[in-house]
Write a structure and sequence with these properties.
- By secondary structure, this protein is an all-alpha fold.
- The protein is built from 23 helices and two strands.
- Helix content is about 75%, strand content about 0%.
- A hairpin with a 4-residue loop joins strand 1 and strand 2.
């Protein structure tokens, strides 16, 4: 047998060319994922003018409306990816979010645009669970991290080129049709359609990919799950309201009572926050005269946090050990919530950077695409790679060494963001935007790896899902919205809105310092638990 005939599970087996081909298709999917997600940044000012909404709504649209459904549906869809045909699942999800992105282009009011954004979030929730699983079956362990890093590069490439694409479509469309084009579409609407429709073609391409046998490359092939949708439905009952009430009732009367107490508690908190923030006056959604109070931000968050409470409660009943090492572990919670504060500032900066540059420095959309979007794509990619390498090196020196990189990703951007949104220099603003992306992106790999080290191998899927819950429900759902809310209350002072996000840094500092003290001992306990199970 020569080298080319070795089984895929051999340590030095050659990776088939098809694996690299399939990975390249998945990278395109992830690039499009973030193009469709991030293009809202370059379109924000046009949407604000056309629909008569304010910055608070723009933050809600980019953050909360997307994040809640992306996070919650990610758990049952992740379960489905573990038991069903992953290529088909990704094809369906890609088709859904592409269709919803295109549908955003036909929105005549903010209510329809919000609904389309929800659809984008649900569709995109299929992408990474399916892709991570497929890549693990296309590549051996020795190349898996490299393959996943290549896939993850789509995040920064897609986010960066979304500004370029959006700018080109909007400026050319508005130049050709200054009073509205076919069907009365404005430039921002044409941009949504332009990036949405290609996804439907890409979905056809994805459908042609071959579904690998689970575990074959590791020498542990698994049989197909007989009833793959059963687990999906079970997870829906545990996390998607109002099914959560039924799920709790199935466990026990006590579980139902606790669930209902949680339901009342979260919605009472949302009501109180609404009163304290005095946001009940609402704002008008253009086109239909449809009122939506800004307080709906807090009630939608209450839905999300109640859903997570329900899921964690169910996990405690179904798998006490996994619950103990995730939700029951102070080290794990401090790590993921600490990174959530990094995402809080990072998401707000990456979203509001383009609208701020357009308003304050009067930078054209095309310039923003080339001078803001493209450099951010490069520095984001470099930051996540360099941060991951540094984190792994520090881990060989100190048990909690990776957390120092997370601390850097939290603290280093603070002065950068401060100067970025207070400087009078356009050039300095653009340079600092790239630097902020470089610094913040460095924390991602370190935080993810630390969270994985705090659980047993069989719990890594749950740990990953919980990590992303903190990233989306703390970072994405709150950061962009609160910056927009402050801007709205300060007569459109977006700079003040962005500076207001920096208050979260001290909270993150406390969480990460606590994690530094807690993680080493927690990792030792995990190792001991793993040895006892072996």
């Amino acid at each position: 047998m020569d080298a080319t005939d070795k089984p895929a599970s051999a340590p030095d087996a050659k990776v088939p060319a098809y694996s690299w081909y399939a990975l390249s298709v998945l990278v395109l999917v992830y690039v499009l994922n973030f193009v469709d997600r991030q293009i809202l940044s370059i379109l924000a000012n046009d949407i604000k003018a056309d629909l008569g909404v304010d910055d608070a709504f723009l933050g809600f649209l980019y953050g909360t409306a997307f994040a809640i459904f992306y996070a919650l549906f990610g758990i049952p869809l992740g379960k489905l990816a573990d038991s069903w045909h992953r290529v088909r699942l990704m094809t369906i999800g890609l088709g859904l979010w592409s269709l919803m992105t295109a549908a955003s282009g036909f929105a005549k009011n903010a209510a329809v645009l919000s609904g389309a954004r929800v659809g984008v979030g649900i569709g995109e929730a299929t992408a990474s669970p399916s892709a991570y699983s497929l890549i693990s079956d296309w590549f051996p362990a020795r190349l898996r991290a490299t393959a996943l890093a290549i896939y993850s590069s789509g995040l920064y490439v897609g986010g960066g080129i979304s500004l370029v694409i959006g700018a080109l479509v909007v400026e050319n469309w508005n130049a050709a049709y200054p009073n509205g084009g076919p069907l009365g579409l404005a430039g921002w609407q044409a941009a949504f359609i332009a990036v949405g429709l290609p996804g439907l073609l890409l979905a056809i391409w994805v459908f042609t990919l071959k579904e690998p046998v689970r575990g074959l490359i590791d020498g542990m092939p698994s049989e197909p799950v007989e009833k793959p949708w059963r687990g999906f439905v079970e997870e829906l009952l545990q996390i998607i309201p109002p099914f959560t009430i039924l799920g709790a009732a199935r466990r026990s009367p006590t579980a139902l009572a606790i669930n209902l107490v949680g339901l009342v508690g979260f919605f009472t908190a949302a009501w109180l926050i609404t009163l304290l923030a005095e946001t009940g006056q609402g704002f008008i959604m253009g086109g239909m005269g449809f009122d939506l109070a800004i307080s709906d931000q807090w009630f939608l968050l209450a839905v999300g946090y109640y859903a997570i409470f329900s899921w964690a409660s169910a996990l405690r009943s179904r798998d006490p050990q996994t619950f103990a090492l995730t939700w029951g572990s102070p080290a794990f919670l401090c790590t993921i919530l600490g990174y959530g504060t990094v995402a809080f500032i990072s998401y707000a900066t990456s979203y509001w950077g383009a609208p701020y540059g357009e308003r304050v420095f009067e930078i054209s959309k095309s310039e923003l695409g080339l001078l803001l979007g493209a450099p951010a794509a490069v520095t984001g990619f470099l930051g996540v790679i360099a941060g991951g390498r540094m984190a792994d090196w520090l881990f060989t020196k100190l048990p909690g060494g990776r957390l120092y990189v997370v601390l850097f990703g939290l603290l280093a951007p603070v002065p950068v963001v401060w100067v970025m949104f207070t400087t009078d220099s356009k050039a300095l603003f653009l340079v600092l935007a790239a630097v902020a992306q470089l610094f913040a992106s460095s924390a991602l790999g370190a935080a993810a790896a630390t969270s994985q080290s705090l659980v047993l191998p069989r719990m890594r899927g749950v740990a990953t899902a919980t990590f992303f819950l903190a990233t989306t429900l703390v970072g994405l759902a709150l950061g962009p919205y609160l910056a927009g809310l402050v801007s709205s209350k300060a007569d459109g002072d977006l700079g003040l809105g962005m500076l207001s996000t920096l208050w979260v840094a001290p909270i993150g500092l406390v969480l990460l310092v606590a994690a530094l003290k807690l993680v080493p001992a927690a990792q030792e306990r995990v190792l001991a638990a793993g040895q006892s199970e072996a």
